[in-house]
Amino acid sequence: MSHKAVTGLEWKDDVSFILWLPFRSDVVVLCFSIANPNSLNHVKTMWYQEIKHFCPRTPVVLVGCQLDLRYADLEAVNRARRPLARPIKRGDILPPEKGREVAKELGIPYYETSVFDQFGIKDVFDNAIRAALISRRHLQFWKSHLKKVQKPLLQAPFLPPKAPPPVIKVPECPSTGTSDAACLLDNPLCADVLFLLQGQEHIFAHRIYLATSSSKFYDLFLMECEESPGWGGGAGEEVPCRDCQGRVQSISPAEEGEKSPQRTPQAGPGPSSGQDLLESLTLQTEALSSEAQALSGWSKGFVSMHREMRVNPISKRVGPVTVVRLDASMQSGPFRTLLRFLYTGQLDEKEKDLLGLAQMAEILEMFDLRMMVENIMNKEAFMNQEITKAFHVRKANRIKECLSKGTFSDVTFTLDDGAIRAHKPLLICSCEWMAAMFGGSFVESANSEVHLPSINKMSMQAVLEYLYTKQLSPNLDLDPLELIALANRFCLPHLVALVGNLGELGFQTPVGNEIRFNLKLPAASAPGKMVELSFDDTSREDFSSYAGRALLLILALTVCPPFIYYGEQHAVQELTKAAMSGVGIDGEVLSYLELAQFHNANQLAAWCLHHICTNYNSVCSKFRKEIKSKSADNQAYFERHRWPPVWYLKEEDHYQRVKREREKEDLALKKHYSRRKWFFWHSSPAVA
Q1: For 573-632, how does the pLDDT look when each residue is reduced to its tens digit (9 = 90+)?
Q2: What pLDDT, in 10s, does the model give residues 60-111?
Q3: Beta partners for residue 105, in sequence order
Q4: 109, 516, 552, 571: which has the fewest Cβ within 10 Å?
Q5: SS3 for 561?
Q6: InterPro entries attached here (predicted)?
Q7: Ramachandran region of residue 71, left (φ > 0), alpha (ψ -120 to 50) or beta?
Q8: What is the DSSP string of 598-636?
Q9: Which of 474, 396, 433 is nearest to 213 (CA)?
Q10: Sheet holding 302-311, edge to edge
Q11: What's the average model confidence in pLDDT over 543-564?
């Protein structure tokens, strides 16, 4: 018969419950929690004395419960506990030697259990039975079967399981910026088109959005570019009025002329500069204004088109604008809805004037919009999903074409090895960095040419393609390291996903990039040897192997602060594959750790920490100096999460030492009994 005395502070003043214990108990299992030091203290000061008072000859077994809390995530455990429960702190967890010291002082065996891990429960019951039988053997010494009972055995220490590797979570691809495009239509920053409706109502828009969404507008603006190559062929056609930046507030738009309209600027405060400003604007207007081109014979809905200088209603800066006059069939409400569809590819089912919108779509040959309106009118709006998908596919292809040819561009990026034409509206909607540059008070917002140092044309082309379409075409000549550095410069969190996929295509040797520092990394061909990677290295045999490719990918990922998603996943998979094939990756992981932490690659850093901690003994034996050179926080993390843990190693040493001592005692006892037996059988004839 066994009784368990559950201890705690709540029973400190009420020990009378022990009286119900039968005086003829066979064994008492005295338990305490390893997460409550007071419970162990009460074992010695209160409970053991009470047990011996009422059951003086009953054997006692000391058991430490909740062993799993030694390696558990205490934050998660505390969150799962009831709200008013006292939180468990790391300092409250008792090491095994504390319980063993108390057990040794009391002269009783000690065991540890965990119901969560199902560890030690059988040991407790088996050895409690042994203790009871040994105690009974002293009273019933004539029973021979009790002589073979062993004393309570040693308990092998519990080796906690390895922590599972962290899961690399891949976020969804960011939206294509439809809400930003709609906002750009309502707040026409960098607008280069002005529609004049009946009643002198005007609507600002952007050529690139209209031309890539509608073949009619594409032909219209392309016709304008062909007739005036200097106007729409590239970024150099704009005259941003750099001299008057910050001084011009507005230019009166009251008079709308179809032929060579003249604008009178309202100069800012400086009397001497105001006259120069006025003359400059007059010359620019005369140079950029053109004869109105009649469009009534080209297509319905259009009257004329001409170019002139206008003040942007958002930036208050003067710039060239294509003015398109529409006829009376183009009503304001349906036309605004049509423009919103061209910008976003979405159509509100609750639109009021669907019939007028359908007629306008028919005039402008926008058959996809016409079908969507018809589906809504026929209560079949669910069919519009496929039309919308096809619309976005055609738009993306047209955008890529405009990017490659520089059609309808309004800005030129001058790079180290050439120039690339781009489109401010698309950049503003797809990149916060670009939106701040072109939409803020920076000097680049008024310029049609922007110089970007330390960037090559191929990487910039890839980034622009990603910004325009949220896709990245594979290119074997594209250096992932340079692309990631450029993505970091432009603050593009999701670009690393596509760069990570480029890693499967193969890596080139590292070439120059804008990261101006020297980095010492372990060589793949010679473990323990450090090589120095700098921005101008062009050939390293250490990077031609698999480990070198993985190194480049990890370095690329850690260069850019939040770029950790698909690229991290790909890198972790490649490193895991290398480890399974027998390739040593410990040195590489040590090198990546603090780089990942420095650049906020949190998932990669967590994986590196997990690998180092779960292979701590082998890593420390090979790279002891590198381990000691890590930051104090990292070293503290290693000590707290290393596997096997320190307390297990100490317990294993103690277990092996005591086990050897017991084996020596058993061997000596066995020799003693065999010697006595030999003397017994050989002394009889001599006596006889």
Answers
A1: 667 777 787 778 888 888 878 877 776 667 778 888 999 999 999 899 999 999 999 999
A2: 999 999 999 998 888 889 898 888 888 999 899 999 999 999 999 999 999 9
A3: none
A4: 516
A5: coil
A6: BTB/POZ_dom, P-loop_NTPase, SKP1/BTB/POZ_sf, Small_GTPase
A7: alpha
A8: HTT-HHHHHHHHHHHHHTHHHHHHH-HHHHHTS-HHHHH
A9: 396
A10: 202-205, 193-196, 318-326, 302-311, 293-294
A11: 40
Q: Average pLDDT in the 394-415 region?
A: 91
Q: What residue spans define the domains of the chain?
A: 2-148, 178-249+278-403, 470-641, 646-688
Q: In whole numbers, what is the pLDDT of the chain averaged over residues?
A: 75
Using a 10 angstrom Cβ sphere, with 0-12 exposed, 13-18 middle and 19 or more buried, the burial of residue 215 is: middle
Q: Report the percentage of the chain scoring pLDDT > 90.
A: 30
Count other C-beta atoms under 10 Å from residue 22's C-beta. Answer: 11
Measured distance CA(593)–CA(574) in Å, rounded: 16
Peptide bond between residue 644 and the one before it cis (omega within 30 degrees of 0):
yes
pLDDT-derived band at 521 (thresholds 50, 70, 90) equals very low
Query: Is the fold of 2-148 the same as that of 178-249+278-403?
Result: no
For the segment 368-386, the average pLDDT, to the nearest whole number, is: 91
Q: CA 601 to CA 562: how far, in whole Å?
A: 6
Structure tokens at 80: 């799962």
**Window from 319-323, 536-540, 602-606, 645-649 with minimum mean pLDDT:** 536-540
How many other CB atoms are found less than 10 A from the CB of residue 21? Answer: 17
How many residues can be counted in the chain? 688
Neighbouring-strand partners of residue 519: 533
**Which is nearest to 523 in space by CA: 551, 503, 556?**
551
Secondary structure of residue 50 in the 3-state scheme: helix
What does the block give as tokens for 13? 């003043």
**349: Cα separation from own chain's centroid:** 37
E strands, 139-208, where?
193-196, 202-205
Bridge partners of residue 204, in order along the sequence: 194
pLDDT tens per residue, range 2-12 = 444 444 444 44
CATH fold of 2-148: Rossmann fold (3.40.50)
Contact 58, 51 (CB under 8 A): yes
Class of the CATH domain delimited by 178-249+278-403: alpha beta
Higher pLDDT, 414 or 476: 414
Output DSSP code: residue 46: I
210 is written with which tokens?
């209209």
Q: Following DSSP, what letter does each residue of 373-384 receive, concatenated?
A: HHHHHTT-GGGH
To which residue do tokens 């976003």 refer? Answer: 344
